[in-house]
Design brief:
The chain is of the alpha+beta class. The protein has 4 helices and 4 strands; from the N terminus they run H-H-E-E-H-E-E-H. The longest helix has 55 residues, at 2-56.
């Protein structure tokens, strides 16, 4: 009896151990994929933030234009744009939350 049952139990246990090892490898792969997607989303968001700051801080606007301070309609943070930027753009980006919003939602231009 032990001669027949021993190899069968060893074979079954090796299949179970292999299956658990494969499951761990697959979970590690999935976790890596999720992490890389999150990093890509963060880099896109950072690029939007840099673009919004660059739009906000044009040096030629400091001497010539008046800035309008207002709260971002999405995050509520205080932001500033020149009157010219507000009148010439339909969409602006908030440098705090990196989201775009329509000028008409904030001002009646």
């Amino acid at each position: 009896m032990a001669i027949i049952c021993g190899p069968i139990l060893a074979w079954i246990s090796s299949l179970l151990i292999y299956g658990f090892g494969q499951a761990v490898d697959d979970l590690n792969f999935i976790a890596g994929e999720i992490q890389s997607k999150n990093q890509n989303k963060q880099s896109v968001k950072e690029k939007k933030r840099i673009k919004a700051i660059a739009t906000k801080l044009k040096t030629e606007d400091f001497d010539q234009e008046c800035y309008v301070d207002f709260a971002c309609p999405l995050c509520g943070e205080a932001i500033s744009y020149t009157e010219e930027q507000i009148k010439s753009n339909k969409v602006l980006s908030c440098p705090e939350c990196c989201e775009e919003f329509y000028v008409k939602d904030v001002f009646s231009v």
